[in-house]
Design a protein that fits this description.
The chain has 264 residues and is α/β, with parallel strands linked by helices. Helices cover 41% and strands 13% of the residues. Helix 3 packs parallel to helix 4 (114-135) and helix 7 packs parallel to helix 8 (220-230).
Length: 264
């Protein structure tokens, strides 16, 4: 397993700030790149950071902004999403990345034809997974969406059943699980043989706040206990939001806490 630190906290020209945290961890931490290919100049910025990134274990989040994997094939949104996903795989391969994260949807499902969105997004997953095989990069499926925002496509039972049926490799976002009222330990128990990684952050139990691991209603100590018992080989990806970025002392404290897990 690895501890990875997401660049989600930073704007495109600033994400090399994660390097200092990874370096301080002395080989125990790496970087999850949250790609921003929708922004002009991002690809050039990423290229400039490649030498630094090659020093660390790396994973990539899939494209999120202006990306939608439930978009119908042939639409502008679909084409844009798949092109950004291809670029993500390309750079993940350059960096010998561990995996790329896949969201079935980012859009609202309230008032939409949910069965049709599910059908399309599952078909699009297979296209993305087929593309990933040409780069030799695994795809891991995240429990995306938050009920309060109307973006949750699958409830807990539906997500577990889909992951089992399709034999997905899985990334569990514990903040999403908390905001949606899921029984996190049950999810971990039922998918433990498929869980590759976790996004770790906390929130108020309703909103997707991406706060520090002890700042919220999720019992992070209990999660660590369950993690050690059920999925000790999975990665822990610290995925904080922009409002946490300047709390450097707090981030260091959290990374130190995670690194104290006995088997690391």
């Amino acid at each position: 397993m690895s501890i990875l630190i997401s660049t989600n906290m930073y704007p495109q020209n600033d994400f090399s700030r994660v390097f200092s945290y990874a370096e301080e961890m002395e080989g125990r931490a790496g970087v999850e790149i949250f790609p921003l290919f929708h922004q002009p100049g991002y690809e050039e910025t990423l290229k400039s950071f490649l030498p630094g990134l090659k020093k660390f274990p790396v994973s990539f989040h899939g494209p999120y902004y202006q990306a939608e994997h439930s978009a119908a094939p042939g639409t502008e949104e679909y084409c844009r999403t798949m092109e950004m996903f291809r670029k993500t795989l390309e750079y993940c391969a350059v960096l010998s990345g561990r995996y790329v994260v896949f969201h079935h949807n980012n859009c609202s499902v309230i008032g939409a034809d949910r069965p049709e969105l599910i059908r399309i997004s599952c078909e699009n997953y297979y296209k993305a997974e087929e593309m990933s095989r040409t780069y030799g990069i695994p795809v891991v499926v995240e429990n995306a969406g938050v009920s309060a925002y109307g973006t949750m496509m699958f409830d807990q039972k539906e997500f577990i059943n889909l992951c089992r049926k399709e034999n997905y490799q899985v990334l569990i976002d514990i903040g999403h699980a908390n905001a949606n009222g899921w029984n996190l330990r049950q999810v971990m128990e039922e998918l433990k043989d498929q869980i590759t990684a976790y996004h770790v952050h906390n929130n108020d139990g309703i909103h997707d706040g991406h706060q520090r691991i002890l700042n919220g209603t999720l019992n992070f100590e209990q999660f660590l206990t369950d993690f050690r018992e059920l999925t000790p080989e999975a990665d822990l990806v610290v995925e904080y939001g922009a409002d946490v970025a300047d709390d450097e002392a707090g981030i260091r404290s959290d990374l130190k806490k995670i690194a104290q897990i006995p088997f690391l």
